Amino acid sequence: MVWGKYFLALVTAFFFLAAAGGGRAQEKPVLNLDELVAMALKYSPEVKASQDEVELARQMREEVRGYYYPRLETTSIFSVVPNAREPFVKDGVTFFPDPANRIHGVNVFGRLDAVITQPLYTFGKIAHRERAAQRYVKVKEEGVEAKRGDVIVKVAEAYYGFILADQGKDAVKDARVYLNDARTRIDRLLAVGSPNVKESDRYRVAVLEGALEQFAAKADEGAKVAYLALKQLTGYPPDQDFRLPLELPQPEPIKADLEHYIRQAFDLRPEMKQLKEGVVARQLLVEAAKAERYPSFFFAVYGVLAGAPGRATVKGNLRDPAIIDFYNSRGALPVLGMKWDWDFGITEAKIKQAQAELSQLKNTEKTALMGIPVQVAEAYGKVQENYKATKGLEKSYINARRWVVTAFSNFDIGLGTMDEVFRAIREYGEARGNYLLALYNYHLAKAKLDHVTGAYRLKMAARAEPKKEGPARKEQRQK
Hints:
It is a single chain. By secondary structure, the chain is of the alpha+beta class. The protein folds into two domains: 31-69 and 122-295 and 340-464, Outer membrane efflux proteins (OEP) (Up-down Bundle); 70-121 and 296-339, no CATH class. The chain contains eleven helices and six strands. The strands form two sheets. It has a four-stranded antiparallel sheet, with no helix packed on it. Strands 2-3 form a two-stranded antiparallel ribbon. The radius of gyration is 42 Å and the shape is elongated. The protein starts with a helix and ends with a helix. The relative contact order is 0.12. The model is unreliable at 1-25 and 472-479 (pLDDT under 50).
C-alpha cells in the first residue's frame, strides 16, 4: 500500500509537470523590433531575389575570366564515301582500279578537326571587361543592402502601427470608463430630479460613445492588418502567434546636426555606392569597346584525325608530301596567330553607345548628389517636428486627464457642470490620440532617417557583432 501511494504521487506529479510544461509551450513569445527585423531579413523573398542577382553577376564575371584560358573547339563529321583501292604501276604505266569518275561501292568515313587557342595579348579586350564585371558584382551587392533597408522600413511601419493601434484600444478603454461614470451620474441625478443635468445629457453620452466605437473599430482593424503584415514580412508560421511590447518607446532628441546626416548618407547609402561602382564599370566598358579597334594575338594548335576504311592510301616512302588525303590523315600543328576584325562603323557605334551609357550614369549620379541632401533634410525635419510634437502633446494629454478628474470632482461637489465634464472628456480623447499619433510618426520618421542616411547598416553590423560579457556577468556564469 505504501509503495502504491508513492507511485500514485509520482504519477500525479508527472501529469502536473507535463500540464505546466504544456502551458508554458503555448505562451506567445514577445518579439521586439530588432528580432522581427532579423527574422524578416532572413526570410524576405525580396532580399533573396537580390542575392540571386549577386550570384548572377558573379557568374557573369566568371564567364569573362574564362576567356583568359585555353579554348578547345572541335568539329566531327561522319558520312559515307566511295571505295578506292591503291593505284599500281604496270609496264611503266600507273593504273587506278577505282577512278574518281566511277563508284565502286561505298564505306563509312569519319573526321575530327580540333583547334586549341590560347589568347596572348588582346589590348585589354578581356581585362577591361573582367574588371567591369567585378564592379558590377559590387553594384549588385549594394543592391542587396538597399533591399534590406526597404524591408527594415516596412517592418518598422507594421511594428509601430500595431503598437499604436494597441495603445489606441487602451485609450478607448479609458474613455469608456469616463463615459460610464458620466452616464451613472446623469442617471442618478435625473432620478432625483436634479437641475444640474438634463435629459439631453444622455444623448450626448451616446454621441460620444458612437464616435468612440468608431475609433475602437479602426484601432482593432489597424492592429489586425499590422499584425498580419508582420507575419507576412517575417514568414512567421500561420498557426503560431507572438506578442509585441505594450508601449511605444519614449522619443529621444537627435544628437547630431543635419550636415552630419548628409555626410553619412553620402558615405553609407547603397545607392551612392552603386552609382560610384557603376560609373567605374561603364568607364571600363568604354575602354573595352575601344580595344576592339586593335588585333588579338594568340597561340594555337591545330589537329586532325580522319579515316575511311574503304579508301586505301599510298604506303611507305611512296607517300607524296604534296598530296593531303582528306579522308585518311592525322597530325597536329602549333602556330602563332593574329586575329583582327575590320568593319565599317560597327565598332565605332559600339564605342559611342558605351560612352552614352557612361554619360547617362554620370548625370544620374549628379541627380542623386542633388536629391539626397533634400531627402535627408526632409526626414531629419520630420524627426525634429514629431519629437517636439510628442513633448508638447504629452503634457497636453496628461493635463487633459487631470482636467477630466477635476471636472468630475467639481461636478460632484456642485462647482462644475456636465458641459465641462463632456468638454474635458472630448479634449482628453483628442489630446491622447494626437500624442500617440505623434509618437508613432516620430518612430517612423526615425526609421526613415536611418533608411535615407544608410545608418541602418551600422545598426545591422552592431547587431551582428558578438556581445562581450562584463566581468561580473562572466564570473556569475562560470559559477
